[in-house]
Write a structure and sequence with these properties.
Strands 3-2-1-4-5-6-7-8 form an eight-stranded mixed beta sheet, with helices on both faces. 39% of the residues lie in helices and 17% in strands.
C-alpha cells in the first residue's frame, strides 16, 4: 500500500469538486496540496477539511505550488479558466500525470452538450502541455455534492481516458480510493464522450429530480 500513496496537487481545489476529492483522498492516506489563486482561500478550505476529518496531512497553497509539489496533478477548474490555468502551471507539471476533470459547459445551457472544436477539454490539455505530460481524463459523471459528503457511500463508475495505459491505471487506483469503480475507456480522444455525459447527467438530474445521477458499466451474458 505504501507504494500506492501519492502526493496529490489539486488545482482549483477550493471548489466543491476539488475539496471533495481532497477530503476523500486524504482519508485514504494520500498527501494533499489544495491549490487556489490565493493561498489564504486555500488555507481556509484546508482548515475546514482538517477539522472535519481530523487528519492534518493536507496543506493550502497557491496553484503553482500545488503543481510543483504534487506528483499527481488534478485540474478542477471551470472551462472558462482552463487555458489560463494551463499556462500558469505548464512548466511545473512536465514529467507528471495530470488528471483533467474539466467539462466545457456553456452557462446557462449547461444541460446541452457543448464540446470545443478540438473535441474535448482533455485533448486540448494534452496538446498544450505536450508529450512529456501524461494527461488522463476522468470524473465527469461524479456528483461533487456526494463527494464532499463523507457520510455518503459512493457507488458510481468512472470512465478513464488517456493515451498511456500505465497512467490510466494509476488514476484508476486513485478513483478506487474514492470508493468508485474506474474503467479504462481508451485514448484521450474518447474523453469527448465522457465530458458530454456531464450535460446529460445534469439534464437527467433536473428532469427526474435526482440529487446526483451517475453511471455504471454492466456486462450482460447471452
Amino acid at each position: 500500500m505504501e507504494n500506492h500513496i501519492k502526493m496529490i496537487g489539486i488545482i482549483g481545489g477550493t471548489g466543491s469538486l476539488g475539496s471533495g476529492l481532497a477530503q476523500r483522498w486524504l482519508v485514504a492516506g494520500h498527501t494533499i496540496f489544495v491549490g487556489s489563486r490565493t493561498r489564504e482561500k486555500a488555507c481556509t478550505v484546508v482548515d475546514e477539511i482538517r477539522a472535519k476529518s481530523g487528519i492534518t496531512n493536507i496543506t493550502g497553497v497557491t496553484n503553482i505550488e500545488a503543481a510543483t509539489r504534487g506528483e499527481i496533478i488534478v485540474l478542477t477548474v471551470p472551462f472558462g479558466a482552463h487555458q489560463t490555468t494551463l499556462e500558469e502551471i505548464y512548466e511545473h507539471v512536465q514529467g507528471k500525470i495530470v488528471l483533467d476533470t474539466t467539462v466545457p459547459l456553456k452557462p446557462p445551457r449547461v444541460a446541452r452538450v457543448s464540446l470545443p472544436e478540438r473535441g474535448s477539454a482533455a485533448a486540448m490539455t494534452q496538446d498544450y502541455l505536450g508529450e512529456h505530460v501524461s494527461v488522463v481524463s476522468a470524473l465527469h459523471t461524479v456528483s461533487a455534492a456526494h463527494l464532499i459528503n463523507l457520510d455518503h457511500k459512493l457507488n458510481g463508475h468512472v470512465l478513464i481516458c488517456g493515451n498511456r495505459k500505465a497512467s490510466r491505471q494509476i488514476i484508476a487506483d486513485l478513483i478506487e480510493d474514492l470508493g468508485l469503480k474506474g474503467w479504462h475507456a481508451g485514448s484521450i480522444e474518447n474523453s469527448a464522450a465522457s465530458e458530454a455525459l456531464t450535460s446529460t447527467m445534469i439534464f437527467i438530474n433536473k428532469f427526474y429530480q435526482f440529487k446526483g445521477a451517475g453511471i455504471q458499466i454492466i456486462s450482460e451474458e447471452y
